[in-house]
Amino acid sequence: MIPVTTLKDKNVALFGLGGSGLATAQALAAGGARVVAWDDNPDSVAKAEAARIATADLRQIDWSAVSAFVLSPGVPLTHPKPHWSVDLARAAGVEIIGDVELFVRERRAYAPDCPFIAITGTNGKSTTTALIAHILKASGRDTQLGGNIGTAVLTLDPLKAGRFFVVECSSYQIDLAPTIDPTAGILLNLTPDHLDRHGTMQHYADVKERLVAGSDTAIVAVDDTYTTLIADRVERSGTKVVRVSRRQPVIDGVYAEGARIFLALDGASRLFTDLSDIQTLRGGHNAQNAAAAIAACLAVGVDEDEIRAGLSSFPGLKHRMQPVGRKGSVVFVNDSKATNADAAAPALSSYDRIYWIAGGLPKEGGISTLSGYFPKIAKAYLIGEAAPAFAATLGDRVAYEISGTLERAVLHAAADAEQDATGPVAVLLSPACASFDQYKNFEVRGDAFVGHVAALPGVTMLIEANG
């Protein structure tokens, strides 16, 4: 845990007692703050009380005595309308912050030289975060990984000199971190997302910009209009900007040409590495992720050979284009995290011949946007509630069967793939759907896929079957 001592002896109100909220309350209490916490869910309040966190309905407290209000990132700050607790804090003139802001204040106060890499973007941030942490750990550096990737930042080991922190940041977390100041900040891309919470695309982009604007080195992927403008604007403000791209050369930065990654300085470029043989970094989107990771690791002093070694040994992000088994020329790939069509596109673009397992609880729009990848699909195996609708979209353009269950889909896809004489093929779970019709979440679905693959005769597993 990172005790939050910068609010020692201060009265702090906190709303939102899910996993990160409860962890934040405990970190504040451990640092000596007087915390009073609340949640709209009585079960969450009960859990906090069991953890010896003081609770009270924030509508009944004296806000004039409160020094700071800590809001969990899942609670609306601005749109569609501010949560009632936000209105109370604003009316009292109390600052509203989140757990990432508490972390950066602790870092400034007690370990300002502690390397801090923060990553954001609409897509790819989890893979990039995991890749950077892996490179650092593989090089022998003391590394902590957390944030939006699943481990609350204040539950990480305490700040100290020489300890590296790699933190994935959602737009919600950035919105509650007004003084975020990473050693290296990464912005990967911007496409419309979470507009129900940000109101407009411009506001969403403005929030994301704050992360790189406060960085010592801003690493910005300039493959869309919003990020290109942000890179220019941040550079004009005096911040060092390293541009990365998967689509075009850059004058100063890191760029990809297919699977080859180049370093550029003053317009002169040289080959840094080739990702062709790294199965966990297939596809143009991963070339962008790798380029950003390379730039960040260089910015915090990692040696080039250490970076190349870390790239080569990267095991991949669990449930995201994760090769899990192999039998002859067939590779089995777990992309359970692809819970909508846009998220499934990278995996479909990364393999030339695919036995595709898709379906689950359908999202709006279905899979019609994936039609450009249909020629790559040898056959589709449709599961869950979405199966009839997906079958209608595939029509006579793609051979398919309605398998119903994931287990049956794996069995049939594996049998068909083994008979394919065209060369390397992938049995790909990339559902383009939520999991909730058949599984608790996409992680449970992905683990089930791995288990079904492990049960196939003759398959060499590339990961542990239990995840």
From TrEMBL:
MF terms (GO), sorted A to Z: ATP binding; tetrahydrofolylpolyglutamate synthase activity; UDP-N-acetylmuramoylalanine-D-glutamate ligase activity
Keyword Membrane annotated: no
Biological processes per GO annotation: cell division; cell wall organization; peptidoglycan biosynthetic process; regulation of cell shape
EC number from the UniProt entry: 6.3.2.9
InterPro entries, alphabetized: Folylpolyglutamate_synth_CS, Mur-like_cat_sf, Mur_ligase_C_dom_sf, Mur_ligase_cen, MurD
Lineage: Bacteria, Pseudomonadati, Pseudomonadota, Alphaproteobacteria, Hyphomicrobiales
Keywords: ATP-binding, Cell cycle, Cell division, Cell shape, Cell wall biogenesis/degradation, Cytoplasm, Ligase, Nucleotide-binding, Peptidoglycan synthesis
Job of this protein: Cell wall formation. Catalyzes the addition of glutamate to the nucleotide precursor UDP-N-acetylmuramoyl-L-alanine (UMA).
Protein name: UDP-N-acetylmuramoylalanine--D-glutamate ligase
Domain of life the protein comes from: Bacteria
